[in-house]
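Quick one: structure for this chain?
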Amino acid sequence: MTDRAQAAKPARPYRPPDDPRLPRFASYEEEAEFWDTHDFETLEPISPEELVERRAIEQEWRGEREHRPG
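Got it. Here's what it folds into:
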């Protein structure tokens, strides 16, 4: 890929992680700063019940997106 093609390619928009244990980040840079001083292993675990509920909601949401007319 040429430099010109890379420059024209839009950057992927930031999508914050969907995890209630994490603060809401405004950018990749802000999230990177957080992980520079925090460790994944120190976060409180998600209960199995909450994890099942989150996965069900995510599957439902994805199913609705896939079946939208358009």
